[in-house]
Write a structure and sequence with these properties.
Structural class: alpha/beta
CATH architecture: 3-Layer(aba) Sandwich
Largest sheet: 6 strands, parallel
CATH class: Alpha Beta
Shape: globular
Strand order of the largest sheet: 2-1-3-4-8-9
Order of helices and strands: HEHEHEHEHEEHHEHEHEHH
Helix content: 40-55%
Length: 252
């Protein structure tokens, strides 16, 4: 009996040591989930900065047809990662990483001007709780998808980017299914994973006060950056610094 107890204790100790070693492994993989009404190309500058610093960066190009579809697209990219991964989400992408972040490979979460839902909340319910100053969302003729009025896009989405860049973003925006915006989140990964949040103080797409409230509730380490909703493109160095710091903190 004593031998069996000792064997059980030894196995438990070995398992805990392995688990600790996995948690403490260096985080070199970054997976980025872009927001709605845009695609991953806007992350080029931040990606180049992080790649130059030695990170393996992958961007999920999710369809934004439903929350389930977008979580599945993110999961497919996570499956390709070798080792612990930092999951980053912008805007609607924050809802996606809150769901996909339960994956064992995910070491932590970074929310970039993003929604951080609790269980039962949706993008629409959160956005309506503290409306943003930009009110340029339109429905497609079939009533199934949403987009930003191209005329209002520069001011509401990326006011601190050059006009030619915002004009292109307006023309290339990825329409979002209304179903994705109304989908209710499940149990949030931020309750069990460390998280960081960037508040874009000049954001007209998500109320900065809402960003602060969600980050506080989640216990995220907060960095405020004076920037538009497109903070990842207008302030790529500062955004990369937060992601870099989060990866290093998870590697300690």
């Amino acid at each position: 009996m004593t031998r069996k107890i000792l064997s059980t204790l030894a196995l438990a100790f070995a398992t805990s040591v392995i688990a600790f070693a996995a948690q403490a492994a260096e985080v070199k993989n970054i997976v980025i989930v872009h927001g709605a009404l845009a695609d991953g190309s806007g992350w080029r500058k931040a990606t180049d900065i992080l790649t130059d610093r030695g990170f393996n960066v992958t961007i999920v190009q999710q369809p934004i047809t439903s929350l389930a579809d977008d979580v599945a697209a993110t999961q497919r990219v996570l499956d390709l990662q070798d080792g612990p991964t930092l999951l980053v989400g912008h805007s609607y992408g924050g809802i996606v990483i809150t769901e996909a972040g339960h994956d064992d490979k995910v070491a932590g979460l970074v929310y970039v001007a993003a929604f951080q839902p609790d269980k039962g909340e949706s993008l629409l319910s959160l956005a309506s709780s503290k409306p943003a100053s930009g009110m340029s969302i339109r429905e497609t003729k079939d009533g199934k998808f949403l987009y930003i009025d191209p005329v209002a896009f520069p001011n509401d989405f990326a006011a601190d980017l050059p006009k030619d860049e915002t004009a292109f973003l307006a023309r290339s925006q990825v329409f979002a299914a209304k179903e994705a915006f109304s989908a209710k989140a499940g149990e949030p990964a931020w309750k069990n994973k460390r998280s960081w949040a960037i508040v874009a103080t000049e954001d007209r797409s998500i109320n900065p006060e809402l960003e602060r409230d969600m980050a506080k509730r989640a216990g995220s380490a907060v960095t405020e950056i004076k920037a538009s909703h497109a903070v990842f493109a207008s302030q790529p160095e500062k955004v990369a610094d937060v992601i870099d710091a989060a990866a290093k903190a998870l590697s300690e």
